[in-house]
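Quick note —
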Amino acid sequence: MNGLHGPLNKRLPLLLLLAAVALSLWTHSMVFNEFVMPTYGNTMIHVASSRELVETGQYPFADDYSYGGGQPNLYVPVYRFAYAEAVMLTGLPFDLVGRLFVMLFAILLPLGFFVLCRELWGEWPAAAAALLASAVPELLIYTVRPLPQALGLALLPIAFYLIIKNNRIAALAATALVVLTHQEAGVFLVGCAFAFFALKLLQALAAKAEKRKLALDAPAKLAFACWLAGVAVYFGWHFFITGNLDVFGLAQFQNHEGGKVTADLLATKAGRAVLLLGALGAVAALVRVVRKPFEPLNAEYFALACAGAGLFACFNDLVGIGVFMDRFIVFLGVALIPLAALGAKKIFDLGEALAENLL
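Predicted structure written out below.
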């Protein structure tokens, strides 16, 4: 029996990837149904800064359009610079460039998850992850709008891949890029990187206590470097704009902006299928970690670290932070997709084993 790993099916994961890209393009194509480019979600605030850059050659560092002007422009600038550059290079109008950006996000999402999960679990789970990228409702809601969040979300799986692959220069560059594209995406990225490093450090310390040989390996060290780089880049930007390092003095922290995450809200926004498969994948990863405590298992540790960072962000009100809890559900979805792909793999493996026993 050839099964999922037989020679007749070697090309099927790539065909599923193409199907995932086609599905993503179709779902995101709704951006062309609007007579005017969707303007909800502060879309035009970012267009305003990009337009000023195009028309005057100056970026409005000291004038934040979102609050009527007169105060520092706190949004990180990469998305707006990219938007302006695309308009200047193509000569296309802002609304069309925004729509084309959405289609770019639609392509990057399944490709990014495919590359990441192929590195973590193999080609079949990678194909599942690419398809699941269209199964997280909140991920579609955020990426169908031409916003910095969408670009940040599209870049996250690629940045994760570079870390786990131990591509040092590219991973550090990707970290800086994400941090300067969208604040929340940057927070999630550095949170995942630090959580992965911390878990691997604990594993190495436990091995040392048991007199086992298990050094802190290269991906874990790179994750720590990415955490340091991400924090330094953002604080550098914040100081450049505000002249201080008081991030917790921002209105979002002072006013505790964000809604509380309930079970119903989580199920609705993350998607029940991804939650269930993700829970199964998390159990599978935990079981392997417990059974092989002194094996490197970077894939399992990384996936669990990202899920832990996502859960912490969604429920940060429990530790007194209380900022953007509901907004972080989409990032938890990003973390759950690799685990859901692993969960799908376990189901297929079980089905294949049962079929072989019956035939």
